[in-house]
Structure formats: C-alpha cells, structure tokens
Amino acid sequence: MKRAWLPYAALLALALAAGLASPETVPDSPVPSAQNPGPSGVKLLKRYLEESGREVRLVETAFELPAKGTVVLAAPTGHGLSAKEREALEAFVNGGGTLVYLQPRRSHAQVELDGWLKLERGPPLARDGVGDDLLGTSDDVTRLPGLGKLRVLADDTVMTTLDGAVPLTKGKSLWWVKLGAGEVFIGAGADLAQASRLELDDNAAFWASLPGPVVIDELHQAPKQKPDLSANLLAVLAQLTFCGLAFVLVFAPRLGPPRPTLVEKHRSTMEYVRSMGALVGQAHIEAELARLEVERVKRALDLTDDDVPVRADGVKTPADYLALSRRCAELERTRR
Q: Positive or negative CA dihedral for 150, 151, 154, 159?
C-alpha cells in the first residue's frame, strides 16, 4: 500500500513525456497565400482548380503575366505593385485578359492598383449568422448567370468610380468592369478565395467560371526583397578599405629596431667670428670703424679731442685698424 502511488507517477511521467515529444501546433497564418493551407489561405483554391483540370501558375519571383487567362491578386499586403508592374497588368487586361483583384481591407499597400481602378471604401455588410460561418454573410448575385449567392466576410465592401463598372451582387461586395478587350472583377478582402468559405454558397462555382490558365500572384504577398549590393556600392567599399589600409600603413607603429637618432652638429663661435671678420674686411670700412672706436674711447675716459693720444686719421687697412684697436685698449687699461 505504501508504494501504490508508483504506477500513477509512472503514467503521469509517460504522459508528460509524450506531450513534450509531440510536435507543436503551428498557428494558422492570416496571409491569403497559395502556400498557406490554413483557413485564411488559398492553397485549397489552387488544389480545387487543378483537380478541375485548370492550369494554375504561381507568380513568385518575377511579375510575368500570360497572354490570356486570369490573374488573381488575393488581397496582397506584402508590398505594393510598382508602376511598371501596374502597366504590365493594365496591358494584360486591355489585351483580353481577366483580372480578379480582391482589395485588402484597411490597407494602402496597393496604391497603384487602387488609383488605376479608382477604388473607394464601401459600406459594411451585416452578419446573417447562418451555418458555421458566424462572421460571414451571403450576398445575392444579380448579374452572374448560374450563380445565386457568394459567401463573404461581413465587413467593409469596396466601390469603384470607373465608367461602366457595375455591382454583381446585391450588397456590392463584388464589381465588374470591362477595360479594353478584357475584364476586371473587384472585391473586398480575400473572402472569395479563402479555404474557410470556398465550399460555401457559389464561391467555388465563381472561380470555376473564370478562363484559364489561372495565375495566382504570390510575389506581392511577401515583403519586398532587398536589392543586392550594386557594383558602385562595392567599388566605394573597396576604395574605403584601401584608404583604411593606407592609413594604417602610414600612421601605425613600424616593426623592427628603431632608427638611429641623427646627431646635429652646430658651428662653433669662432667660426662665426671669423666669418664676421672676413665680411668686415671685404667691406672696407676700417676708417669709419676707427673713428667710432676713438669716439668710444673719448666717452669712456672723458677726454677732449686734444687729450686723446690716438687719431683715426691714416687708418685705411685692416692692419691699421687692428693696431688702432690695440692702442685704444692699452689706453683704457692704463688710464682707469
């Protein structure tokens, strides 16, 4: 009795291990993509058309359109069509193609398409609470032969101001307009294409009535891919790298033993004196220097002209000036 709890503990541990080992449930994706098998996806529509004998293509890498057939844009919100892509789509319709554009609700992702088709937000539909689709409503078809009702979400509708555009249902959840040699179906939201409502009312019959091949746009369901680095950007990066390496090479400390310090040799004072003497000898100013030297001696010893025993007259050569300088020096030494 004391160990009666052991079997229960073992069963509990096994249950816990089985729960941890089981794969986690992936939440349903709200993206109306042909790759999404959930209730909001359109993978079931793709499979239904293929089983009905229709050729179905997916536009995933480049916006390439067929010459004829039907192009489906099921509320793409990943990124908007460019002006060039919109022109290609317009040429496809004018050439006889069929476009089914289900505008994403409360989104401005498709500015080019909304402007081309002159779309506006329409009044919302009321829920009818019929069946398991508690959030939907059945909209009576008024202009499509063989179709009675379309099951859509009870939400905002769409309106267009294009010339010749007519609503195909009583609640104006689906519009039709002829452009050139082709036609355009306009709806609000991906309700008609989603797996959760494909088998309700005449939704599947609507898709079966469209001409083939059917091309489903997957490219604009995902965010726009970032472009690869351009050749110019790579060239700029290479230049910056080269400049950085050059900077490091020039300003970084050099390896190896230090260079010997250069010894600066300065000239001696006697060299400057000799140079000055040679310069004075070449100037021939001995007479002027002798006169200045006599004047200096007179001021230093406070003598008059008559009392000075040395005269500047007759000094013409450097030797004469040197002899006068010695006599003046001797005179100053003996008189003081």
A: negative
The CA-to-CA distance between both ends of the chain, in Å, stands at 139
How would you class 280 by CB atoms within 10 Å of its CB: exposed for 0-12, middle for 13-18, buried for 19 or more? middle
Residues 201 and 285 in one domain: no
For residue 288, give both structure tokens.
């002027």
Q: Tokens representing 263?
A: 């010894």
Residue 245 in domain: no
Contact 136, 173 (CB under 8 A): no
- Please count the CA atoms within 13 angstroms of the CA of 104 that sit on its side-chain side: 21
pLDDT of residue 18: 62
291-295: long-range pairs with CB below 8 Å, 24+: 293/321, 293/324, 293/325, 293/328, 294/324, 294/328
Q: Which residues are registered as beta bridge partners of 58? A: 216
**What's the domain count of the chain?**
2
- Neighbouring CB atoms inside 10 A of 110's CB total 23
pTM for the complete prediction?
A: 0.62
Q: H-type helices in the chain, by residue range?
A: 6-21, 43-51, 83-94, 111-117, 203-208, 231-251, 269-283, 286-301, 318-335
C-alpha span between 291 and 288 (Å, rounded): 5
Beta bridge partners of 74: 102
Q: Rounded CA gap, 26 and 9, in Å?
A: 30
Residue type at position 249: L
Note the pLDDT of residue 332. 82
| Successive 10-residue mean pLDDT values, the chain, 336 residues | 59 64 62 91 94 92 90 93 94 95 93 94 89 88 92 94 94 94 94 93 94 92 76 81 80 68 79 79 79 85 80 80 85 79
d(CA 118, CA 110): 12
| pLDDT for 1 | 47
**Domain containing 83: what range?**
28-221
Residues 171 and 291 in one domain: no
